[in-house]
Amino acid sequence: MAKFQLVQVKVSWTVLLTLAHFTYLLIGATIFQLLEREAESNNRNHFQLEKLNFLANYTCLDVPALEKFVEVILDAWENGVNPSGNSTNPSNWDFCSSFFFAGTVVTTIGYGNLSPSTVSGQVFCVFYALCGIPLNLAFLKQLGRCLTLHLGRLERGMLSVVPLKQTFEALAVSLFLVTGSLLILVVPPLLFSYVEDWTFGEGFYFAFITLSTIGFGDYVVGSDPEKEYISLYRSLAGIWIIFALAWLALILNMGARIVEHVIGLTNQGFRKQDDVDDVSSGTSEATSKI
113 and 217 in contact (C-beta within 8 Å)? Predict the structure, then answer.
């Protein structure tokens, strides 16, 4: 009877998480629609009005010719060529930009503003991602372990010289997290805002969208043709992305452990189910070895 109750708890948690997940998606879809749909309509009307004004000022052009020119501009943008400026704009495929692109491939960010246009480049990108994504995950996992190890050493070092262990343990963890967050999530957005002429909000938005691997592509560093960047700018941004992802993985892992601990304290059934899953998985492993 007790075993049946434990299974029932597992099913209820699965149903609860499923409902919560899709409810969260529905809420997000509704809010995004309310916030963005009117702005999209205004932008579309403004663009159509600008086209009509352009045709009125340049009577030598007709509507089909203008539509053809717009298609050329869109094709250029999809192929990674910025329509503004001229042919002297910096290349999107110099070494630093290619290094930055390779980082977005293996981290699965994929901004969408740049992609291989040749068949050979597309084929290479597929195999490069197949090998690079697992390698990147292994690297981030190992880097997270190293950060966790240094965090443990910091805790032990402070606990060895202070009497109030629990208090200073919390202070050590807080100091580690605050310092890392400043170096990863605050200082880089400030630098990006200064270099790209963004607001801090836009810089932080870019950092979060990048590190969460969402990668919309609406804000990308080093993509303004009117600016002259240092040669290593995009490469340094790519290196920041790699180490910041490892830091963020550490933070998310700690947050998940805290949530699991809180759930385990408040719901004994969930805790028992975890124990049953651990025992059953251990039994299956032992059986497979036999």
Answer: yes
